[in-house]
């Protein structure tokens, strides 16, 4: 009965989540970029240092260590320890991250917001990625992973590192000049919300 209720919740919640995200993001795309978006980006680039740039590049370029490594580690641990709950939580984390990635890519294609350095020539990125800007895929997937992991293991020594990693990843996208704050904030919210419909998988 619990499984049926959870499945029914997923069927009901996921389409509404998708429609809400599309509505919010489409509305945002129709507006001009807020002044604070540009101001924050320019301020960040003016205060870059080689050490910080190297650190945030590393964080940004190794996203898969968390998104793939966490569920893979849980799966391996569950197999070795014959722990069904750990294997189930591995599926929960992986599914949450996969949903966030799918929704993010769909919204990117529908909204088609240009990267900050394309919209404003005063913004100088550390490197120039392709694709669209809104919302931030790094932010959505890292927060989906962090939220699902924290829900599966609600201990401070899991929650704090998980969200520190997700927050650092999201911040790195602004610091590197490739995403606006609104891209990052929307991505983080979308990622965290993506873990909710899959709660029925959590042990």
UniProtKB/TrEMBL annotation:
The annotated topology with respect to the bilayer is: Multi-pass membrane protein
Lyase listed as a keyword: no
**Species name:** Mucilaginibacter ginsenosidivorax
This protein's GO cellular component annotations are: plasma membrane
Under the heading InterPro entries, the entry gives:
PAP2/HPO, PAP2/HPO_sf
What's in the keyword line of the UniProt record?
A: Cell membrane, Hydrolase, Membrane, Transmembrane, Transmembrane helix
Which SUPFAM superfamilies does the UniProt entry name for this protein? Acid phosphatase/Vanadium-dependent haloperoxidase
Q: What broad class describes the main subcellular location of this protein?
A: membrane
UniProt subcellular location: Cell membrane
Provide the Phosphatidic acid phosphatase type 2/haloperoxidase domain boundaries: 90-199
**Any idea what this protein is called?**
Phosphatase PAP2 family protein
GO molecular function annotation: hydrolase activity
